[in-house]
Amino acid sequence: MQIWNKDVECQDRDELRQIQLERLQATLNRAYKNVSFYHNCLGEACMDPSAVRSLDDLRRLPLTSREDLGENYPYGMFAVPLRDIVRIHTATGTGSNPTVSGYTQNDLAMWTEMVARCLTAAGVGVDDIIQVCFDPGLANWARDFKGGAEAIQASVIPMTPLELPKQVMVMNDYKTSTLVTTPSYARQLVREMDRMGINPNSLSLRRALLLGESMSDKSRARLEEALPVQIQTAYGLSEVPGPGIAYECRERQGLHLNEDHFIAEIIDPESTDPLSPGETGELVLTTLTAKAFPLIRFRTGDLASLSTEKCSCRRSFARLRSVQGRADRLVVIRGIKLHPQLIHTAMSRLCQGKIPAYVGFVNRLEDLDLLEIWLRLDEACFSDEIKVLEHLVHTVRRELEQSLGIPVRVKLVEPGTMEDYRDRLGQIIDERSNG
Questions:
Q1: Is residue 297 within 8 Å of residue 289, measured between CB atoms?
Q2: Which of 300, 291, 335 is nearest to 102 (CA)?
Q3: Alpha-carbon gap, residue 247 to 242, rounded angstroms
């Protein structure tokens, strides 16, 4: 049974804008009334929700940042009482506090609808068997795809913490037709198939939906040749929250934004001035249907451009193009966003405020993205006892892995080794190539 009206995706843009305006006004009223942060922000900007009479008025409203979410930890951004919240998610923040988002039952239904659209646009149907593979840090996304797959009555193999050989075995034996994962995990699966002597052509796999990380055209082409399947992609955020914000149809001319649920803007990251259609800048999103966790002009930090030209698939939703790169200091590793401040906070806590000099590196080893932290040996911070140093390395690694949900390496280095990075201490250096 279909749970949404496909005509919504193809409706006239004037009608769509009217729907957006009505939902925006309702969202602003709810946020102003129930969320102190937005009540104060709009008051300081001398903007009463009733003053928003067109979509163009949206740009007059204040922006929301990840720092704002952290400062209102845990429930300060919720617009409904906790008794109405049926699910709570957390995501890595930019400081000591994670970001916390909540869903009402209606929010969950809306998100299931969006993920179902995403799968349908990729060509997935009732005859498909969908295998979901994510790292633990994206467990919430895996749950969303399970719900979306069940909504379109496809068979789904939910995410389970299996080693790569077991995932390949499941793909082969269960006759998986659609793979949902990240680009980096897909590359690992290809490598594992080669190690196991399994020819991808012998599989039942017909398509893959890859998301969570940027993927160049060159990288996509290589994966399509290696698997070989047609690859679609999608866009999501853990803060907004979820994986179905925008999705690619089989024409692959950009990612269709669910405009009945979101309003997108592209701004200059420095001046925050709005940019013209087609120009690349920072993507800003405003939720239109979220009851529990409304966000007004949320700065995603992602660089993209926006097109409102109608796609040849007949969908009229605006399309995101070139979602590549960041306007901030966040680094995406296996779909998880990492801010340098998280490492700083962990170091401060574990070293009793005496933070050692450190630098982080993100590298790709055998198609696996890895985070490695170098800590400079410093007499002011470290003991020369081997057991103490080993305990520190183990503690820092465990702390970061638990908070991020991705593997972390920690390495102690001599002061001279860090000399080349003296101007980049405390930063994360991304040394990967998406080519």
A1: no
A2: 291
A3: 12
Topology of the domain comprising 339-430: GMP Synthetase; Chain A, domain 3 (3.30.300)
Instruction: Reduce the DSSP state of residue 143 to 3 states and report it.
Output: helix
Topology of the domain covering 1-328: Rossmann fold (3.40.50)
- In one-letter notation, the amino acid at residue 356 is P
Residues of the chain with pLDDT under 50: 1-4
Please tell me the pTM assigned to this model: 0.89
CA-nearest of 229, 335, 293, 285 to 85 is 293
Give the three-class secondary structure for 301. strand
Cβ atoms of 301 and 327 closer than 8 Å: yes
What is residue 231's three-state secondary structure? strand
Q: Domain segments of the chain: what residues?
A: 1-328, 339-430
User: In one letter, which amino acid is 117?
Assistant: R
The per-residue DSSP string of 24-35 comes to HHHHHHHHHHH-
pLDDT of residue 1: 39
Tell me the residue length of the chain. 435
pLDDT at 393: 85
Under a CB-based contact definition with an 8 Å cutoff, are residues 389 and 427 in contact?
Answer: no
- The H helix count followed by the E strand count for the chain is 10, 19
Q: In whole angstroms, what is the distance from residue 246 CA to residue 230 CA?
A: 18
The per-residue pLDDT for 435 is 54
For residue 252, give every residue at least 6 positions away whose Cβ sits within 8 Å of its Cβ, in sequence order, or none. Answer: 232
Closest to 221 in 3D by CA, of 210, 234, 230, 212? 230
> Which residue type, as a one-letter code, is found at position 320?
L
